[in-house]
C-alpha cells in the first residue's frame, strides 16, 4: 500500500508545531491499538489495526489562555468521521426469522404486499397534506408582508423617507428568518438546509442521527415557511423531499417513538430494509408534491437518492407520488374555492408552454442550447466552489447556535437591502395589462397603470418569478434588469445555502438560470441580420427554460430526473431532447471542475458514503489489505460476563461479531459459524436468555422476532441492562439468534469485487475468511469509504473521532 497517498494535516489552534500532524496517530500509521485476547472458554480478540485521530483532545494550559478568543473548529476534508454508524439493510436470516417466514402462508405474503401499497398511499396522502399546509402558510405570510411594505412604500414615495420602508422590510424579513433559524439552531440542527444530502446518505446505508424523527419534521416544516416568507433566496422543494422521507419513516413503523404511541400495525416493517424502501417512496412523494411531477419523483429517487432498487418498488413509489400530487391538488382547489377543478399541478407551477411556432425550437438552435449547457456547468461549478469555501468557514468559525442565528438574520437583512436598492434604481416599468394576474405589483416611481418588474421579481414567490420569466411576452423585462438580477441573485443564493435554516436550492437555481437564459433570448434578435431569424428567436421564454435547466443541472448534476421534472412542470414534451442535451453538457462541464453540491456537503460532513463503483485504480488492493483485523469474535455458547464486558467497552463500540465454533478437542482454530449484531445481544441480555435459566423453571416464554421489533430502532444502551454477579457466570447460546449464513469473501478478493458485493447487497459487515473458513478480518463501511480517487491518485482518508 505504499503508493496510496496519505495527506492529513490541520492547523492547531494553540500550537503551530502540530500543523503537520506530528504525533497524531494515523490509520495504518505509527500507533496501533494492542491485540488482546481474553480467555473465557472461548476466544475474544479486539480490533487493533484501525487507529483513529481524536479531534476532541483536552485543552492544555496554553490553549486555556486563548479561551477569550473566538474558537475555531479545525476541519479537514481528508478525514472520515467515526461517529456515523451503518444501517442493517441485510436481513439477519437466523432461526427465528426463517421459522416466521416458513409459517407464513401465501395469503399472508399477499396481505403483506397489500400493506406495502397501503403504506405508500398513506405516505403520499400525508406528504400532500404537508405540502398544502406549507403552500397556504407561505402565501398568507408573504401576502401580509407585501401589503404592509407596499402601503409603507406608497406612503413615503411622494414625500420622501423611503429609508423607513427599507428598515421595515429588513425588520420583517429578519423577524421571520430569526424564528426559523432559532428552531433549527437550538432545537433540531439536522433540520437545516434542504435535507437531500442527509436522505441520500440514509438511503445509502448511513445512520444519520435524528434525520427521520417527528421533531425534525415539525422543525423542517415551520423552518421552511419562515425562510420563504422571510425573503431568503431559498426554495421549498428540498425540505419537501426531507419531509416526505420523515413521513415515510414514521408511517411505515405503525408507531411513534417520540410520542411513545404504538398503534400495533405494520409491525413486520420494523427493520431497516423495509424502512429504506418506504423512505425512497417518501422522497419521491416530496418531489411530486413540489413540482407536480410523479414520474420525475420516481426518477429522482432512483437517480439521486436511492442506492438500492427493485422493480416492484418502482410501481409503489409511483403510486405514492400520484397520491401526493392528487392530495395537494385537491386540497388547494378546495382552499381556492374551486373544488371541481384541479388546476394546481404542484407547489411549483411553471405553467404550460404554448404550442406555437415561437415556442418551438429548430435544429440549428441545438448547438446554442448545448453552449448554454456549458455556461450552466461553469456557473454551477463556480457556485459549488464558492459555497464549499463558505461552508468551511462556517464549520470553523460559525458553529455556535447564537452565531448561526445572527448570520441568518444578517443574510435576511442584506437580501432585503440589496433588493430594495435594485428596485429603487431600476426603471423597469411595464404596463399592468402585459401580465395577466400579477400577484404583487408595485408601482413605486412608475407612471399610473405601470408596475416595476424588478420589484415584482423580488416580492413574488421565487416559483412565480420563474413562471413569469418563462411565459411573459417579449418586452416584459429590460436586459439590464435581468443582468443585474442574475449577478445579485447568484451570490445571494450562494451565501444563503448552508445557513441554519430549512431551505432548498432548486428554485433559486432555476430562477438564476431563467434570468440569464431570458437575457440571452432577448439579445439574440439584436444579433440577427434578418427579420425572419429575429422572428424565430422572438420568444425569450424558451431560452429562459433552457437556462434554468442548465443552471440547476450545473449545481446539482441531475440529468434524467430533472429532464422529466421540467417536462412535467411545464406540460410540454417538445423540449425533452434539448433539455437532456443541456443537462448532460452541464454535468460534464461541471464535473470537470467541481463535484455536485450535494456530494460536496456529504464530503464536508465526513460521512462514510459508499459510491456506486470502487475507485478505478483500486484493483491491486485486496480484502486482506483493507479489512479490520484481528476481529472480536464470540463462541457459539459464550459466558454472559464476557459479552457484557465487551459491549460495555467504549473504546471499541463494535456492532457486529462473528460467531465461531471449535472442535471437541480444541486443537484446531475456531471456524466461522455465524454473525450476531450488538442490537441482538442487547435484546438477549435484556430478556435474560441464558442457558441456566432455560434449564430451570425460571425460564420465560420463548423469545420471538416481535421482541426485537419492539426494541427497534432505539435499542437500549448496554449501560441500562442490569446483570447480577451470578448472572455474569451464566452462559448464552447464540445458535438460535445469530445469522448462520453471513456473507464472506476470501482474503485475496480484489477491492472492486468487495466493493460491489458490499454496495449491491446493502451490507453492514462482510467477513473475510481464509481457505479453512477461519475469520481473519471484517470489512465495514468505513473500510471501503476511506479509499477514493484524488488529485494524486488513490488516496486513503483517515478515520477521526469528530
UniProtKB/TrEMBL annotation:
GO molecular function terms attached to this record: chloride channel activity; chloride:proton antiporter activity
Comp. bias intervals (Polar residues): 1-35
Domain CBS residue range list: 738-796
Gene3D superfamilies reported in the protein's UniProt record: CBS-domain (3.10.580.10), Clc chloride channel (1.10.3080.10)
UniProt membrane topology term: Multi-pass membrane protein
Cited InterPro entries: CBS_dom, CBS_dom_sf, CIC-7, Cl-channel/antiporter, Cl-channel_core, ClC
Protein name, as recorded: Chloride channel protein
Source organism of this protein record: Gadus morhua
